[in-house]
Design a protein that fits this description.
single chain, about 160 residues, 5 helices, elongated
Length: about 160
């Protein structure tokens, strides 16, 4: 498993986070690693579904870019098992086969979005940026709910 990190110039609006890239094609991993690291994210890349599951169980990731078709465990099965393990990573499923059935199945299993290969790096950047923003908003909401609960306890306790 490799790790890359870089600080982007003038991208202060982007929420930086951790990304897991899982694809059996080395060239895809290489491109996604560099594109995401360039945007300031910490990126871990793995070559199989089994490695992806191990990585997801080892530490939290904000976003996972996972190929739907890998030789050992499919990207959809990685997503399903992650949900069974209550892992809340946002999944972007990648596929070379642009079929509605794949998109529907990925969505049913809880994917955040779907990306068709070959992809445009601007599209990847946009999807990852939106996913990171959703993660930030979700964390802010959780924090605010906690603060509200504490305040309610103080008021009730008086």
């Amino acid at each position: 498993m490799r790790e890359m990190s870089a600080t982007p110039p003038d991208k202060t609006a982007v929420a930086h986070g951790t990304i897991l890239v899982a694809d059996d094609e080395e060239s895809i991993r290489w491109v996604l690693e560099r594109a995401c690291a360039k945007d300031g994210h910490t990126v871990h890349a793995v070559a199989s579904g089994r490695e992806a599951l191990a990585a997801l169980r080892e530490r939290p990731y904000d976003v996972a870019l996972v190929d739907i078709k890998m030789p050992d465990v499919s990207g959809l099965d990685v997503l399903t098992r992650a949900r069974e393990d209550r892992i809340d990573t946002l999944f972007i499923i990648m596929t070379a086969q642009n079929t509605m059935a794949n998109a529907i199945e990925a969505t049913k299993r809880g994917a955040y979005d779907y990306l068709t290969k070959p992809f445009d790096l601007d599209q990847v950047e946009l999807l990852v940026g939106r996913a990171m923003e959703l993660r930030r908003l979700t964390r802010d909401l959780e924090r605010l709910r906690g603060e509200l609960e504490q305040r309610n306890e103080l008021v009730i306790g008086r």
